[in-house]
Write a structure and sequence with these properties.
Strand content: 15-25%
Helix content: 25-40%
Radius of gyration: 21 Å
Number of strands: 22
CATH class of the largest domain: Alpha Beta
Length: about 375
């Protein structure tokens, strides 16, 4: 669907939605635990649904009602389950080690750009511990099981690989992840360690010991990543923990850096680029580094951020390892979301701050992470029609 967005200032207050990054982890911990867990999660996205669906395929009983997930842990894994990861990279990379650890064979499928997204280093680490992959890319089956011990991984490719292995290790007697290069996106690994800690697992550095024990009930954190889009427009978002391990909690610090004319290093928070690029265009411009991993997201997010800013009347440039946005206020235009939820949300904010009507193509892709985005956009003063 295409969304016609009219210039309109945004303001007011909304509540943060649950962090899908946190909910992925809590669901997996609950499904591997010793007894029922209730997870307070007042909103659900397509990516969260994908993880719940995969855990159900492995034998967990998961119900969602009244803003709460009720999770009965896996007791018996069905023979050769099929795990449908949808378009969720987190789901695929988290569930690969988990499934290999608890069943003899599991099949994986996915859609959209997911079959193109890399898993090479994770596959190599898993194969060194007994797993066998039937193909190089989705769809494929994983068989042979997974042993514990020490796994070697680069730290600068995807923190999701590390998270997947950490989540699986308590089911195979423990072990550790040894990094061959410095860790990037460290905040996401800290989120994993925090979630596992709530379920009684000890993670010392990247060494794991203990087993999952349900705390009975947990509350998902508010999502700093999606809140950032409304924050850059001047709205207030409640329910965000300033002490959260989520990397995107530094949104206010990064806005201050842009206001001071400093280059912003996004090594730990690359997904913040779409929102910050819109803010930069409407203020003093901006320069960003640490963004190379954005080329392998739901879209080539460096290219699509550039196209988004330029199509709305701004001026953005990709210099390879550096990305710049000129201080050129957005006027409006026609923007292709490239089926990327973060591009669609950033474009909506940019269009609302512009001077002329804009059209955002494929705006329904926000459902991947924030199904209520357009409703909250309207509550804060945004004006749009669905074409």
């Amino acid at each position: 669907m295409d969304y016609k967005v009219y210039p309109a200032p945004l303001g007011g207050t909304i509540a943060a939605i649950p962090s899908k990054s946190d909910v992925h982890r809590l669901l997996i911990c609950a499904a591997l635990s010793d007894k029922r867990t209730e997870i307070f999660c007042p909103a659900v996205s397509e990516d969260i649904t994908a993880t719940a669906r995969c855990l159900t395929a492995l034998g967990a009983e998961i119900q969602y009602s009244g803003g709460v997930f009720s999770v009965l842990p896996i007791r018996e894994v069905p023979e050769n389950p099929t795990l449908d990861c949808g378009e969720s990279g987190s789901t695929l990379r988290f569930m690969l080690p988990v499934a290999a650890a608890i069943c003899e064979r599991a099949s994986f499928i996915g859609r959209g750009r997911l079959p193109e997204r890399p898993i090479g280093d994770l596959r190599t680490a898993m194969e060194a511990h007994g797993a066998h992959f039937s193909a190089d890319r989705l769809p494929f089956a994983v068989s042979g099981g997974l042993s514990g011990g020490a796994f070697s991984l680069p730290g600068n490719v995807s923190s999701q690989y590390i998270t997947g292995l950490l989540l699986a290790l308590p089911t195979v007697g423990g072990g550790e992840v040894r990094l061959t290069t410095p860790l990037q996106s460290a905040s996401y690994v800290e989120m994993t360690k925090r979630a596992m800690g709530k379920f009684g697992v000890n993670v010392n550095g990247l060494a794991v010991s203990g087993s999952y024990r349900s705390p009975g009930a947990v509350i998902a954190e508010g999502d700093w990543s999606n809140a950032a889009f409304f924050i850059i427009a001047g709205a207030s978002v409640t329910g965000l923990d300033p002490a959260s391990p989520q990397g995107d909690r530094v949104i206010f610090e990064n806005l201050a850096r842009l206001d001071r004319g400093e280059c912003v290093d996004l090594t730990d928070t690359p997904d913040m680029l779409p929102a910050l690029a819109v803010y930069a265009a409407m203020h003093r411009g901006g320069s960003f580094t640490g963004i190379e991993r954005l080329r392998i997201k739901e879209s080539d997010r460096i290219m699509t951020v550039k196209n988004m800013i330029n199509s709305l009347g701004g001026a953005a440039r990709d210099h390879g390892e550096r990305f710049t946005v000129e201080p050129q206020p957005l006027t409006g235009g026609r923007c292709d979301s490239a089926s990327d939820h973060r591009i669609a949300m950033a474009a909506a904010i940019g269009a609302s701050l512009g001077t002329h009507t804009s059209v955002i193509c494929g705006g329904e892709c926000v459902n991947k992470s924030y199904p209520g985005f357009w409703e909250d956009f309207r509550l804060l003063g945004g004006r749009f029609d669905v074409l």
